[in-house]
Amino acid sequence: KILIAREPNRICPVDGEILLKENTHEIIIDRCPKCKGIWLDAGEIEAIKEAAQSEGLAIGMVL
What we know:
Strand content: 15-25%
Radius of gyration: 13 Å
Number of strands: 3
Shape: elongated
Structural class: alpha+beta
Largest sheet: 3 strands, antiparallel
Order of helices and strands: HEEEH
Distance between the termini: 29 Å
């Protein structure tokens, strides 16, 4: 939670809303409350996939 507080607010490139920070598998992702888009930093998609696989969860991608 300390790391989340130190990160600057980011803006959604789709609609300009301030992105909400969410902790998923110990990875902080940015989610737009308006368009529901999620924005990942470099390497985060791989880290989420690894965490999901280690927990035996099914994963997929929607583009």
